[in-house]
Structure formats: C-alpha cells, structure tokens
Amino acid sequence: MTEPLRLGIAGLGTVGAGVVKIIRQKAALLTERTGRPITISAVAARNRDKDRGVSLSDYAWEDDAVALAKRDDVDVFVELIGGSDGPAKAATEAALTAGKDVVTANKAMLAHHGQALAQLAEDNGCVLRFEAAVAGGIPVIKALTEGLAGNDITQVMGVMNGTCNYILTRMENAGLSYDQAFDEADKLGYLEADPELDVGGIDAGHKLALLAAIAYGTQVAFDAVELEGIGKVSIADIRQAADMGYKIKLLGVCRMTGRGLEQRMAPCLVPATSPLGQLDGGTNMVMIEGDQVGQIVMRGAGAGEGPTASAVMGDVMDIARGTRLSTFGQPASSLKLVTAAQVATPAPYYLRMGLIDKPGALAKVATALGEAGISINRMRQYDQTNDAAPVLIVTHKTTRAALDIALVAMNATGVVAGDPVALRIESV
Amino acid sequence: MTEPLRLGIAGLGTVGAGVVKIIRQKAALLTERTGRPITISAVAARNRDKDRGVSLSDYAWEDDAVALAKRDDVDVFVELIGGSDGPAKAATEAALTAGKDVVTANKAMLAHHGQALAQLAEDNGCVLRFEAAVAGGIPVIKALTEGLAGNDITQVMGVMNGTCNYILTRMENAGLSYDQAFDEADKLGYLEADPELDVGGIDAGHKLALLAAIAYGTQVAFDAVELEGIGKVSIADIRQAADMGYKIKLLGVCRMTGRGLEQRMAPCLVPATSPLGQLDGGTNMVMIEGDQVGQIVMRGAGAGEGPTASAVMGDVMDIARGTRLSTFGQPASSLKLVTAAQVATPAPYYLRMGLIDKPGALAKVATALGEAGISINRMRQYDQTNDAAPVLIVTHKTTRAALDIALVAMNATGVVAGDPVALRIESV
C-alpha cells in the first residue's frame, strides 16, 4: 500500500468542514481513484469549540495556521482561511518554504500575490493549486490550464460572482430595488464580510485576473482589471434592458490585443435568450474561446460547501496522483509582465440619463454623442418623473474612450441630471 | 533544456493533419506550457501522396502503423486511424507492449476493448488517454476523471453525436424529412463510413460507455448500453414535440442504481427552452451530476479538425508535463464488472401511432395502457390521413418495462397500424 497523503487544513468554515466530510465519508473511493489514502493530520481555525457538523477529534489541533503549515506530518497545506494577506498568506508562504504543496480557495491572495507565491512554490519544488478560487465547483482552472493547453486562447468570458447574479436576478424576477435585493442577499448570508468585494465586482475581478494569467502566460495583473460594480444598476435599467430583449449581468472578459491585455469586469447587457442571459441565481458560467477548439462553455454552482469542497478535492487528488503543474500553467519565471490595455474593443452601449426640461436639451445630448463620433441606434424619452425626464439611448458600436468623451461633454451641457448610466452591450 | 517528447502519429485524416499543424505552428507555446519541446518523429497513413495541407517532409514515413508504434524514436503513439479493431488496435497494443504511452481519439476501440487495453497499459507502466474520443473539444474526460474526482457521480447525461443533432435540427428548422436531412448530412461529409454508427446511436453509445466506466469505476460495458437510433424519428414527431414545447435529441444517460448500471442512448423529448433543447447543429453538451458539486454542464464543438486536435493535444501535453493517470481514473484491475440494469427509472413517454378506423379502437388502446398500469396525461387524435388516424399520447410517469407490455398489448388489438413510436420525455 502506498503512503497516505497527509493534509493540514487551515480554516474550518463551510468549505473546510465540507472537505473534512468528504475525506471522512469517501475514504475508500478516494483511495481507489488516487491509489493512496488521503488523511488529515491536523486542522486549524480560530474557534476550537464551534460545532461544524463533523467530528475533528481524530486530528491534531493548531491555533496557528503557520504552525500547522510547518508540521512534519503535513504533506499538503489546504488554505481555506481567506483574505489576501494576514494568516492566509503567512501560512501559505510558510508551507511552500517548508516544501509542502498548497491547495487554496483564496482568489484574493492569488490575485494580489499570485506571482510571488507561484515563484516561491517553484523555488521550493512545490505545487500551488487553486481550482476552488474560481467559479466554485466548475473545473475551469483545469480546463484552461490542461485540457485546452494546445490552444491560443482568444477570449475568456464569464459570470463568476453568484451573489451579484442573485441580486440582479431577484431585481429582475421579483421587481426588487437594488437595496432590497442586496438586503435579501445579506440576510441569506450570500455577501462577503466586506460586501464591496461582491457588489463592487472585486471578487469576480480577482477570478478574472487569475484566468487571464493562465490564458495568456502573463503575471497576474489584478490592478489592471477595469472594475465596475453593480451598485449603479437600477430596477429601471433592468426593466429597460428586458424591454429590449436583454438581461444585465456582471460579466468579465479578458483578451490579449495588439496593445496589451484587456481585462474588464462590469455589468453588461446580454441577450436574454443567450446562455449567459438565462443564467439565474447563484450559478456561474465561464466561456473559453480557443483558436482550435472554438467556444467551450462551462456552467455550475459558483459557491457553496459541496461545490467548493469538490474543487478543493480535485486539486488534492491531483497531488495524490502525482500530477505536478506550474501554478499558472507554465514556470513562474516565464510569465510575462503585462501591459494593461484600456478596453478598446468597440461595442454598442446602453445609456440612461435624466434630462432636465429645457428647450433643446435632447439636441445637446445628441450633439455631445455626435461630436464624439458616436451614432445613435435607438432612443426613447419618457414622461418627466421628478425634475428630469428619463432618456434611454442605445448607441451603435463605439469605444469606451469615445463614450467617456461624450459623457464629459454631456455633463457640461447642464441639461443632464446626475451621472448617466452607461452599460456595454455584449453579443455573447 | 529538457528532452523533447517525440510523437509518432498514425492516421492523417482531418484530425491527424490538425495535430501536425498545431505542433508545427505552436512549438514555442507548447514548450513554454509543458517545459519541453513536443516533436514528431514519424507518421503513418494509407496514402503517402495525398495533400493534407501541411508539410510532412520533416518526419519519417511508415506505411505500417504497427511499425510506427514500435519505433525507438517514438515516446507517444498517437492513434488516429479509427475502427474498433484492425490496424488501430494492433498498433495500440504494439505501442503499449513496447512501453510507449498512447493518445487516441478512438471511441469504438475503447468501447470494445477498453478494459483489455487499460490493463495492457498498466502492465507496461504506460498511460492511455482518450479525451478526443468523447465530445470532441470539450475536456469532459478530464473533468470527470480529475476535476470532479472527489464526487460520487449521480448521473452523466449528454448529447454527444453532432451528426444526429445536425439531422434533428435540420428536420426541425428546415422542415426536412429524415431522409432529406440524412442526405444533406451525407453530402456535407458529416456521416461515418458506416452511417449506422451515427444514426443508430452506436457512436454516441460508445462515448457514453466510456463516461460510465470513469464515473462508476466499472469495466466498459458498451454491450449493456440500451441503444436506439434516430431513424424512427419522423418530421411528424418533431412537429408534435415542438407543439408541446419539446425538442427531440439523441440523449445519453448513465446512472448507477441499486439494480446495476443503467446506460441508455435514445432519442428523447427535452424541454425546448432547456440548455439541451437549445443545442443546435453539431454542438455537444455533457451534464455531469455529482453528490458534492451538483450539476456541471459543458458545451462545445463535438467534432471537426480544430476541436478534436485540441483534445488530442491536451492529452499529449499532459504526458509532456509528466501527468500519469490510469486510463479510467483508477487501476484497471480495480474496475468492477458491471451488472447491466434495464432502464427502470420512470419517466413520462410520448407515443405516436396510427389508429385504424374501427368502432372502439381508441378505447382498446387506452385499455392496453391502463392494464399495464400506465395513465394518460394528454391525448390527441387527428383526422385520418391514409388508412389510419394519427394518435398522440403523452403518458404520466411509467417504466419502460410497463410500456413494453402495453405496446405488445396494443399490437394485439389489431387496431394499431404499424409500430407505435415511443420516446421518453426527459425533464432535464
């Protein structure tokens, strides 16, 4: 019988408890599939006394994740603490330095320190895997790093934050305001401790940056992601979009262009009947396009105990089977420092603004667009509600840069109340 | 610099030529991602003089695939000849016996000889990979074997024959008869040399049997797949199904039950608005359900040069990276011999038949159903067209066994013209 693979698990929230359950309940299956037993030597968490629905008495307890990471009886350090820095990073570094492989679900840590950690793993002959960090249970890191490795990746696109998708879906289906849907998500425990991580698009941006690094062999460049949260999306936008056959989704896109790497995470209009448009609730979807394979679409649960634990176990079992991969699919030292390109791929845009009732107001807005080289595809003006009349404009294809010029010019006209909402329309 | 991984490629049809092109055009990318050059030592095919759109002059030529498989300068034998036996099998066996890893796209060979070949690979310390054999470019073998390895798989379901889906889509969208759509597919070169492999559901059945072996740790049991082709599906069925909000798809399902392994590949009605219902043309879709992960859906091109070559390259690059997996995800000797279970999971069924115009005819059909314990959900009788009046029945949930009893009883009534069409309705 082959030696067991011994885990040290730090962080015993939902996902950590889920991993412990799988290892306890499926011991025979895991051994059959990997050829060796997978055992837990020790665990660490903040609160030793909390009931996690699973017995921990067989495992040594460490209060300190760093101490856990260094234990002699730990082969693989499973980091489920979370947070970009602090104990998660300290313990991951300690584990790698001690020559232990690491499996993590921590997108924030990798988005901020992915290059340094990948290099540290490499220097110590260790692997650092993170399937659970992106799109929950969907094995998308594996698909991109391994299954589609023979492709030049032309684009990666996805809805990767279930909480935002839940909020947008509830606004659409139940007619809730953004604040109402946000509160509902909060009560259901869907929001991160800092909700801005979710609704600000940051969490999804972390995931996108990791996918981009693998797809293009570049150093993770989270700071270069153009980020826009869903806080600006109103029920009016959702309804207008629906009227025109669209839904609003927090959509991430990355692609390599002649000017550098485009990465953006922003609410967009997508056709209501498209697979992305039909994606309701907490489900995630990632679409990978390769020059050989065409488009591969993967859909599944983006979060939750079972799906995330499934992804963690996939990585652990790879290690048990002896699979050794570079963190981002190629040696860390070969990852290119990336030039961030402002999003320049033209697209139609949806604009919604309040127009102050003055003679020639609409003409001024149309002029601002025209002078920026933007032509109008559709326009609607509604009855004045408060002080301003709602105006809805769908442009023909234009660049974000041109649009920003037009938006500045519009604000200067003095006829636009507040900031117009501008959302890209994606023909996915 | 690490030693190159040297391939011998047998079979230079579309896919083989596609693999050669990728290796020639993406040499730097492949080396960057795997850490070593991937080269071709020799190729083999039937016709040396055929123009394949790619230069082969750098490679040694073998007329005989077995000779190619044994060459000292070949590390990985890439089998793209096809056919369950003959030279494909002989060369694969020769390669494994000679200690060479094998990558193949050959579903027929593995469906019939998977267990023996997996054992041979294991006995010789070789790997035998076959991502390209199932669902073209979709990395579904990898997802099931590796990414979702921590799950007990509860069900695998999929549309995995692009040709059948093309024919059914054309019947639906263009109102073609089965024969017209078949001829169109034939002219476009979509059909196998023996078309029954496609339209008889055999090719898709091969794929399902391979997925089942991985999912349940069982020996490949293609003979135990309940197979039904699409030849019986008429334009009338397509239209009736559409009227009721369904589409007809050649759908494969496998699941482990208390009575054994259920594997079936048959035309089914699926909701028109479901992801499977919206799957048009040559696209494939596989849905994997695991106890932890829930449902994972993967969609992509099921055939063609680029997608299939992409899958072959995924396997080749895994080997270049040093990944060593058992053929079906666990040692061949541990794969269980499977008891085949007749499909017993109850479902509603769609029935279409011609009713001979005699007093009490409909009552006799209804009685036959009732006596088999099957209750009717919906029924329509249409104007007599030729000698018989078309009757359409949708049953409540029933088993195939009960339905077969009813069908025998119906035929005995003497009021049913010809064989009724019976299609399962899946609420995917």
Automatic annotation (TrEMBL), chains A, B:
Binding locations of L-homoserine: 192
Keyword GTP-binding in record: no
Binding site for NADP(+): 10-17
Membrane spanning residue stretches: none
Enzyme Commission number, as recorded: 1.1.1.3
GO molecular function: homoserine dehydrogenase activity; NADP binding
CDD domains in alphabetical order: ACT_HSDH-Hom
Pathway assigned in UniProt: Amino-acid biosynthesis; L-methionine biosynthesis via de novo pathway; L-homoserine from L-aspartate: step 3/3; Amino-acid biosynthesis; L-threonine biosynthesis; L-threonine from L-aspartate: step 3/5
GO biological process: methionine biosynthetic process; threonine biosynthetic process
Domain of life: Bacteria
PANTHER family in alphabetical order: HOMOSERINE DEHYDROGENASE (PTHR43331)
Family: Belongs to the homoserine dehydrogenase family.
Protein name, entry field: Homoserine dehydrogenase
Annotated organism of origin: Puniceibacterium antarcticum
Organism placement in taxonomy: Bacteria, Pseudomonadati, Pseudomonadota, Alphaproteobacteria, Rhodobacterales
